Every structure is written in C-alpha cells, then in structure tokens.
C-alpha cells in the first residue's frame, strides 16, 4: 500500500551532527505506530461503527478467518470474487534485510528470489469467493493459490490467472476452469523491485485494448525483462503506470511519475486514474505523459530531456492524505451524484469519499463532495474498491490500525495479520443478482451485452470476445459503430478491435465519427499499431486541425510520437497551431515530448522541419518548444549539439524567438562548465551583441560560456534599479552559481536595501556563494536587524562556513545575539562545520542538542498528561503554529511547503501527533530527505557545507534549497561529498519553549478539521 514513509534514525554520530534545521512539525509518518490497544471488533460490532451517506447501505461480505489482510479484489467471468490476501507483509520470506539506501529503500541479502515453485513459500493467498445460490452472501471460498510471497494482484483471463508477485508477473494456466492451476506458472515479466512493500507493482487490470495495465509505487525501482525474449530490460525508478500485451509480449511504460501509485481505476470511457499519497485527490493519466515525481528520491525519468512534467488533478478541497483506491459508480441504480462522480478510499481517514471531476482543459480537477461511508473503528482501512457484477461497490478492508511505512523500517511487529473484512456498499434496496457465466455465451449474446447498463458486464463480454477472436462478428460490429452513438458506439469499437477488425485504412471513417471518444480511441488504437497509411495519416492531420474536443487533441498529441516521424511532425505542427490549447495543463508539454522524440529518432527530418519559417509562428511552438530546444542541445553538451544551437539561432525568425532560445540555452548550461565553445556558436553571438543593448538572455548564456565581459555586464544590470526584478534575480542567481566575485558588491547592497523580499533572498544566496569576511559580517548584521524568518535564513547561511560560524559565536559570546534566539537546527548545522577550536564554545552555549530516547518517552508522557488536563483555543493555537511551524509546513492553506502539507494527514490521533513532534526523527518521510553537500573549494576559497533539499538534479549539477528558502545551484564537479541525512529537519525539543497553555492551544489548532479552520480564518 502506498502509505506514508518513515524510518528510524541512523546511529552514526557524524550524520546526526550534520542534520538540518528549522523549528517545524515533521509529521511525516501521518499516523502513529501500531497501537495494540485498538481492539479488533466482531464483524457485527464493526458494522455499527459506520456512518453512511443518505440512500446507501453497507453489508459484510466476508471476514476472518476466511480472509485476512485483503489488498485487492476483482471478479471473473462467472461473477466470482478473487481476493489477494497480503499475509506475508511486511517482509518477503527467504530474504534477509541487510540495509537501506539513502532513501530508505530496503536492501536484501539475495535478490532476486527465484520464481515459484522454486521460491521460498510465503503466507500470501489468492482466494475465490462465490455466491452459489444468488442470495448476496459469498458463502463459499476456495484458495486458488497458497504459499505466495509478496503478492499484490490476481487477474483472471486468457485461460488462467495472471498474478503480480514482484519481482515477477506470473501466469498460472487453468484451461479446464477447475480452479486448480494446470502446472507451474509461466514467468512473463521479471525485474520489478521489492524495496518497499507499500510501493511494489500492483493493480492488474484488463484494458479495452487487450493490454494488462499495472502500476508501481514511488520507492521501488525496476529493470523489467521478458524472459525468453530479451535480457537487457527497461530500467525505471519510482512510480509509473505500465502495461503488457500477452500475445505480442510487448512491455512498455504507459506513463511515468505520479504520487506513489498503488491502485488503478478507469471510467466508462476508460480514462485512467490513480489515487495520491500527496495533497491531491489523484492523477488522470494520459498515454506517454511524464508526471510529477519527488526528485531525487524517485529517480529521473527514462527520458532525461522532458524539461517539465504534467501535474495531477488540481484539488482545492481538504487535501486528505492519501487516496488509496478509486471506483466509478456508472452502473444503474446509483444516485445521480454517484453516477457522475467517483468513490475515493481515504485509508488514513477511515472513510470513502464521493468526489467530483470537473473538466480542466484536456484533463480534470477533482473535489470532495462528501463522505459516502466512514467508520469510527480505528481498524477500518479501505485499500481497494471495485464495482461488482451487481453494480455494488465492493470494499477490501485491510483492517489494521498501522498502515504507515514505519512498520517496514522496524521489525514489522504489532500487526494484526489475522484480520480482514470485505464489504458491499450499495444503494438502499438494491437487490443482488447473479450474472451468467459469460464464457458459456455465444458471440451474438456477447455483442448484445454491449448494451448492458452495468459496465462490468460490458467489460466482461468484450474480454470474452477478445479471447475467442471471432472474426465472423467483424461486419456486425463495424455496422454497430456506424449506426450508433455514445457509449454503445465506443463499446462496439473496442469489441471490433478485440476481434481483429481494425486496420489503419478501415479505421479512417471512425476518425470522423460524431462521438468524440470513438474518435479518441480510434486515434489511440492507430498509434498503438505504430504504422499509418497515406489515407490514415491525412485523416489524422485533418483531425488535428479541426478537432473540437480537447481530450481528442490530447490523444492526438500522445499518439503522434508512436507513429512514423513524418506523421509525428505533421500532427505536432497542426496541434501547435491550436491557440485554444495554449493554457491547457497537458497539451503543450505533450507537444514538446513529440519534438524531443523526433530529435532522437530522426534528427535530420526534425531539423528540416524546424527550418520551416511558418512553424515558428505557431503559438504552442513558441511557448512550449522553442526554449526547450535551446535547453535540449546545451544540456547534452556535445560539440555537434552546441553547433546546432548556432544553427537554431540563425533559423529563428524574430528577436523574441532568439530570446527564448537563449533562455533555454542558459538553463541547459547550468552546472558544470564546458571546456570549449565551437566557433560556429561564437560567430552566432556576434550579430546578437551588435543588435543593440545586450539582452539579459544573451548575457546569461555568455556568462555560462565563460565570458568575462558578460560577467561584468551581468553585475552592472543587477545593480541597476531600472532593470526588471526578473532579470536581476536571474543574473544574480547566475553570478552566485558561478561564484563570481563581481556579484559581491551588488549582493551586499541588495542585502541592505533590496526593494523586494525575493531580491533580498537572492542576495543572501549570492553572498553565501562568494563568501569572504565582508560578506559574513554583512549577513550577521542582517541577522541582528530583521524579523524572525529572515533572522533564521541569515543564521542558517552563517552555519555554512567555519569562519562565518565563528563570527556567529563571537556575537553570542559578546551578548549581541542571545543564544536562545539561535534555532536548534542551526546549532546542529554549526556542530558539523565549526573548527576544532570553536567546538568548546559551541558546547558551552548549547550543550547536547539531540535528546536521548528515554528523555523523549518521558516528555511524551508529560505532554500527554498536560493535554488531558484541558482543551486549548484553536484561534490562539493558530498564532503559535504561525510562529513555530509555518516556516516549513502548511496547515489549512497557511504556511510554506518546505516539509509535508499537514492538512491532509491523520491529525485526529493525539498520540500520533505527540510522537511525531517529540521524536521527529523516528518518522522521517523519505520524500523530504535532507542532504549535506560538502563543496570542493576552488583556489583561495574556504570550504562550504550546504544542507537542504535537492531539486532538479541532472548529470551536470543540482539545485539545493535550504529550509529558509535560500536556493543554491551546485555543479556536479564542485561536490566533494554528498550525504543523506537520516534525522528529521525538525530539531528535538520543539515544544520546550512553550507554556502549557500554548501547547494546548497548538494542539487544538493542529486537530481542527478544515471546516472549523475556515470558520476560525473568517474570524
């Protein structure tokens, strides 16, 4: 399950001392450790703890001992429910944990384990539940498989059952359908990771195109091979949606990125969604999209030149963490609000929400409407939802209070591994009906079922048609597409494809079908075929010019790069001319992905295409492609690519196009410097320098390329008040990146008298980068003058150099700066940077910063007793939060996003909050892992240490941001040592300076729900 990650702190003293800063709540685990005091209620008692939305009812389907730790469920063609019991969790049998990497991915003594039957048997099961008499009770159960070892999904189909048993995708044949495997499994895929049992590959789902879809979460890696077909495999890190075609044995990533994906869901149009382990409801995936990851933990994309990522669905509701699974109630009988929305399992909040999807260009925004079902039983943990043959929603309840990642970081104790529940949520009065055995129906009956009001029946009929491949049905299905509209036409299109009735030429009429989703899926199926005819290519380009529906245009952009390069470029150009998509959340980036793909697959054709002057007039080419072209060729710094930059500058028809190219080139040149500039590129700059006053973009590129004159001009522009703030920030940041001494004078002037906070912050970063005694004294002066947030930023900066740390200690010794005003996180940073001669002074002023485990447990008990004495004032607590926590965390829309957003976490558990605040390093979320960078000094420079979060890492360098918001770009060649810091960004003893009243007030605000928080904000 993709839940919140945490781990125990390391014991290495040096790492403990290097840890970083800021007084902030690090509620990273989102829930308390397992609590044995939570009793397991009887199934009847658990039912009494549910609260239901009006018009709904819930029924128990199965419970322990027949089911325990259910993690996924699905239904076969006979309407029987297949349940995977994840009883081996949290550790695979036969493997020993020998360590963790810097992101707390588990490392084993022997990997990969052999596949079944040569594996070490585990406790996982795949069980079939059946309602034989049709009364709605699944009174019969049979284990199809036992002894499995970390199994997350089972999917009947193609004469057997597909089982996700990482690192393998297995197929167990059962051709006689007697629910006993015919023999040993066939290994179809190998190489999925096992580094985190919450993030392993999961959620097998049949697509209407005949592919098996699945996903992988954030903390696993994979190098997927097809045994017997290929060995090198496809390597990817972190979350992705993947798919596999059983007949052709093709494997590919459907999309990369997301928010720790675990369960896939699709609506009637088979738009694909997953939930989220972040502050959004979920992700709407499109084919070939690259979605947000948390870098660098989740690793780079398989394509290093994406230069941007697609976002998840915008969400302005409660930001509850997390959305475990989704389901669409499209069957008849559900209230209209449910048929138009989706169910979202909130595993940490012990409820299932009804959420709305609203169009947002070619994608959606998502909003909570209300809970459909909630439970006050702390064991209720809904981890999967599927719509069954009767149209009801079936819920897999993990039934265990501890669903956080810390169980895998410890010993895995305290789990209630013998409990589990299955429920049916349905409209009141809905009767349970038993479906036919679809495997026994003839072709005409299956075609007739395409009209069924329940999507499950239509999906099952299509699957049976695919398994038979009955080409005699092709004329009837083709006619049905032409004569129908809406959902029936789409179902017929999918069925026609299932029977092998779609070719590039025969699909052309469907590109003109009145239903947009028939057009969309025709485009997608043509793209999956990989080849087009002259007629199909012409029809696709015409559709790109005229298509009114944004999701069809999005699919055109997705499918273009799956076709021949010439068709890709023609489609991309037509779509680039669509002005209505300039602000679309997805389409502009998808078009860049197409151009980048063309550069890799047929660069000469792509360059000829870009030399066509009318192309540069296309709005989306200007906004989404031009700057990325410049960045693409300077990021991959071969001599030929740098020459191509000169060629593009010559081709770009307008000054604004050249400026965009220069902007992108400057971004690509970040990090390590290049050793030689081709004469062609130097010659291309000549006309640009002589065209008038030097453009800031040209100066940026010239500085990156080592021009001393450009450095001087950059420093002059930074000092000029008449220059735009955007240009001044960009140039000052660049001078800081290059550690240019010319940056010091304007930086110190801006430290004293910057017209904006943003410029002042950049000036602080520049002073830190350039260094020197004068800069250190200027930063110390700032720490003594400004507000608390700015003081912390300056003190954090002083803790980056030994000489500056000595200045800070001098100020404390002289009484100029009270020791109590130096945050503990800064003190910890000082411990790792001060000279030996200053360590006694440090110890004399602050003593031991890190508390012992015994002291923390004692403090938790004291605070628990204090909080039990009375309740606090949320309004007053809001002010305490603002002073103590908001520098790093957001709650109810207030604060900064340095650490996790606390709004959506499980804040109802006071014990969990206390544990996370008093002992923050016991629950560090790897997504917010801090790093210490020891920088290699250049001649005449002092060594520096930077501590913060890594962003946007490339082969040439990285960007690091500290907790105060100071950004530093670091070239890869300048990093002498890089260390992941296992302690929390939050120091121990955060509450020690508060009065009892303030502590109660703070907890009152922390535990306020969003609705009440809005009321307080209104006051």
What can you see in these coordinates?
The protein is an alpha+beta fold and 1019 residues long. The protein has 33 helices and 36 strands. The strands form 9 sheets. Strands 1, 22, 23, 24, 25 and 26 form a 6-stranded mixed beta sheet that branches. Strands 9-10-11-12-15-16 form a 6-stranded antiparallel beta sheet, with no helix packed on it. A 5-stranded antiparallel beta sheet has the order 35-34-33-32-36. Strand 24 (342-346) and strand 25 (351-360) form a beta hairpin. Helix 9 (516-529) runs parallel beside helix 11 (550-560), helix 13 (587-601) crosses helix 15 and helix 15 (619-635) packs parallel to helix 17 (655-668). It is globular, with a radius of gyration of 30 Å. The model is unreliable at 2-35 and 1015-1019 (pLDDT under 50).
Shape: globular
Please bin the fraction of helical residues: 25-40%
Report the total helices: 33
Count every beta strand, where a strand is a DSSP E run of 2 or more residues: 36
Distance between the termini: 40 Å
Largest sheet: number of strands, sense, barrel closure: 6 strands, mixed
Rg, please? 30 Å
Mean pLDDT: 88
State which percent range the strand residues make up: 15-25%
Structural category: alpha+beta
Low-confidence runs of at least 5 consecutive residues: 2-35, 1015-1019
Features:
globular; six-stranded mixed sheet; 20% strand; 1019 residues; 33 helices
Q: What is the strand and helix layout of this fold?
A:
Elements: H1 13-18, H2 43-47, E1 50-52, E2 56-63, E3 70-75, E4 81-85, E5 97-100, E6 106-108, E7 124-130, E8 140-148, E9 153-156, E10 160-165, E11 168-173, E12 186-192, E13 202-206, E14 212-216, E15 221-225, E16 234-237, E17 240-245, E18 250-256, E19 264-266, E20 272-274, E21 283-285, E22 314-315, E23 323-327, H3 336-340, E24 342-346, E25 351-360, E26 363-375, E27 382-387, E28 393-397, H4 406-409, E29 421-427, H5 443-449, H6 455-468, H7 474-483, H8 486-498, H9 516-529, H10 534-546, H11 550-560, H12 565-576, H13 587-601, H14 603-610, H15 619-635, H16 639-651, H17 655-668, H18 679-690, H19 696-704, H20 708-719, H21 725-737, H22 744-753, H23 757-770, H24 773-783, H25 788-798, H26 802-813, H27 824-833, H28 839-846, H29 853-868, H30 874-884, E30 890-891, E31 894-895, H31 910-918, E32 930-935, E33 944-954, E34 957-961, E35 967-971, E36 975-981, H32 996-1006, H33 1010-1018
Parallel strand pairs: 22-26
Antiparallel strand pairs: 1-26, 2-29, 3-4, 4-7, 5-6, 7-8, 9-10, 10-11, 11-12, 12-15, 13-14, 14-17, 15-16, 17-18, 19-20, 20-21, 23-24, 24-25, 25-26, 27-28, 28-29, 30-31, 32-33, 32-36, 33-34, 34-35
């Amino acid at each position: 399950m993709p839940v919140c990650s945490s781990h125990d702190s390391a014991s290495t003293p040096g790492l403990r001392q290097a840890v970083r800063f800021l007084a902030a709540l690090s509620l990273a685990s989102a829930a308390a450790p397992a609590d044995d005091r939570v009793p397991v209620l009887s199934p009847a008692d658990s039912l009494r703890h549910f609260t239901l939305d009006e018009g709904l009812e819930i029924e128990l389907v199965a419970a322990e001992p027949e089911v325990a730790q259910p993690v996924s469920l699905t239904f076969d063609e006979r309407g029987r429910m297949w349940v995977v019991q994840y009883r081996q969790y949290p550790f695979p049998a036969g493997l020993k944990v020998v360590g963790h990497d810097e992101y707390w991915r588990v490392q084993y003594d022997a990997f990969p384990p052999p596949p079944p039957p040569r594996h070490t048997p585990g406790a996982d099961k795949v069980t079939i539940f059946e309602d034989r008499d049709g009364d709605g009770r699944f009174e019969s159960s049979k284990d199809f498989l036992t002894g499995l070892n970390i199994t997350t999904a089972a999917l009947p189909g193609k004469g057997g059952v597909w089982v996700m048993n990482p690192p393998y995708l297995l197929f167990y044949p059962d051709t006689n359908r007697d629910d006993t495997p015919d023999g040993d499994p066939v290994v179809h895929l190998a190489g999925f990771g096992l580094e985190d049992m919450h993030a392993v590959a999961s959620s097998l789902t049949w697509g209407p195109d005949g592919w098996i879809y699945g996903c992988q979460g954030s903390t696993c890696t994979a190098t997927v091979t097809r045994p017997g077909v290929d060995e090198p495999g496809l390597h990817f890190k972190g979350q992705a949606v993947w798919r596999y075609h059983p007949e052709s044995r093709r494997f590919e990533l459907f999309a990369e990125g997301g928010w720790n994906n675990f369960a896939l869901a699709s609506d009637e149009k088979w738009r694909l969604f997953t939930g989220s382990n972040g502050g959004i409801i979920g992700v709407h995936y499109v084919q070939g999209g690259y979605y947000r990851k948390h870098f660098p933990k989740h690793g780079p994309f398989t394509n290093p030149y994406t230069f941007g990522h697609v976002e998840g669905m915008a969400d302005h509701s409660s930001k509850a963490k997390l959305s475990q699974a989704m389901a669409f109630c499209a069957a008849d009988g559900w209230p209209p609000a449910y048929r138009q929305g989706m169910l979202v399992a909130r595993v940490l909040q012990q409820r299932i929400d009804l959420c709305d999807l609203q169009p947002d260009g070619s994608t959606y925004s998502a909003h909570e409407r209300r809970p459909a079902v909630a439970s006050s039983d702390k064991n209720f943990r809904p981890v999967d939802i599927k719509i069954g043959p009767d149209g009801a929603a079936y819920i897999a309840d993990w039934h265990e209070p501890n669903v956080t990642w810390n169980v895998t970081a410890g010993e895995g104790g305290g789990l209630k591994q013998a409990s589990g529940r299955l429920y049916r949520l349905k409209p009141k009065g809905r009767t349970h009906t038993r479906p036919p055995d679809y495997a026994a129906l003839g072709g005409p009956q299956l075609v007739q079922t395409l009209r069924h009001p329940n999507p499950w029946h239509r999906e099952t009929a299509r699957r049976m048609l695919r398994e038979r491949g009955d080409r005699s049905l092709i004329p009837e299905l083709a006619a049905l597409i032409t004569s129908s509209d809406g959902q029936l036409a789409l179902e017929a299109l999918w069925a026609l494809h299932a029977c092998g009735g779609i070719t590039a030429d025969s699909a052309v009429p469907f590109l003109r079908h009145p239903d947009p989703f028939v057009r969309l899926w025709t485009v997608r199926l043509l793209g999956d075929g990989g080849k087009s005819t002259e007629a199909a290519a012409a029809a696709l380009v015409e559709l790109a010019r005229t298509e009114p529906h944004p999701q069809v245009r999005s699919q055109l952009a997705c499918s273009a790069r799956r076709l021949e390069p010439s068709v890709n470029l023609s489609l991309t150009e037509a779509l680039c001319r669509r002005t209505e998509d300039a602000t679309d959340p997805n389409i502009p980036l998808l078009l860049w992905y197409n151009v980048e793909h063309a550069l890799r697959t047929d660069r000469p054709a792509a360059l000829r295409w870009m030399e066509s002057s009318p192309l540069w007039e296309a709005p989306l080419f200007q906004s989404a492609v031009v700057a990325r072209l410049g960045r693409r060729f300077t990021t991959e710094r071969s001599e030929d690519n740098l020459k191509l930059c000169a060629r593009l500058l010559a081709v770009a028809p307008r000054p604004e196009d050249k400026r965009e190219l220069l902007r992108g080139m400057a971004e690509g040149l970040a990090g390590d410097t290049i050793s030689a500039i081709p004469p062609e590129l130097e010659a291309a700059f000549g006309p640009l320098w002589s065209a008038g006053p030097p453009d800031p973009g040209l100066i940026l590129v010239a500085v990156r390329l080592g021009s001393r004159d450009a450095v001087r001009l950059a420093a002059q522009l930074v000092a000029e008040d008449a220059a735009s703030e955007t240009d001044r920030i960009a140039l000052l940041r660049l001078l800081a990146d290059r550690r240019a001494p010319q940056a010091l004078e304007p930086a110190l002037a801006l430290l004293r008298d910057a017209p904006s906070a943003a410029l002042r912050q950049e000036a602080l970063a520049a002073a830190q980068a350039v260094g020197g005694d004068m800069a250190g004294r200027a930063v110390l002066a700032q720490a003594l003058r400004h507000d608390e947030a700015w003081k912390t930023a300056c003190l954090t900066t002083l803790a980056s150099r030994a000489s500056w740390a000595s200045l800070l200690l001098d100020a404390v010794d002289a009484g100029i700066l009270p020791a109590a005003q130096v945050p503990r996180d800064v003190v910890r940073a000082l411990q790792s940077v001060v000279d030996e001669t200053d360590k006694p002074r440090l110890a004399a002023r602050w003593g031991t910063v890190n508390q012992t485990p015994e002291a923390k447990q004692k403090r938790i008990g004291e605070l628990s007793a204090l909080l039990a004495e009375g309740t606090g004032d949320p309004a007053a607590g809001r002010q305490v939060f603002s002073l103590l926590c908001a520098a790093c965390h957001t709650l109810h829309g207030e604060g900064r996003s340095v650490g996790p957003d606390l709004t959506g976490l499980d804040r109802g558990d006071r014990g969990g909050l206390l544990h996370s605040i008093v002992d923050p390093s016991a629950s560090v979320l790897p997504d917010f892992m801090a790093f210490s960078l020891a920088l290699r000094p250049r001649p005449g420079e002092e060594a520096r240490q930077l501590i913060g979060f890594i962003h946007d890492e490339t082969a040439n360098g990285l960007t690091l941001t500290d907790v105060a918001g100071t950004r530093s770009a670091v070239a890869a060649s300048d990093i002498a040592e890089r260390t992941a810091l296992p302690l929390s960004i939050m120091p121990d003893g955060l509450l020690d300076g508060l009065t009892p009243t303030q502590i109660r007030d703070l907890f009152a605000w922390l535990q306020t729900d969003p609705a009440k928080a809005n009321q307080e904000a209104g006051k």
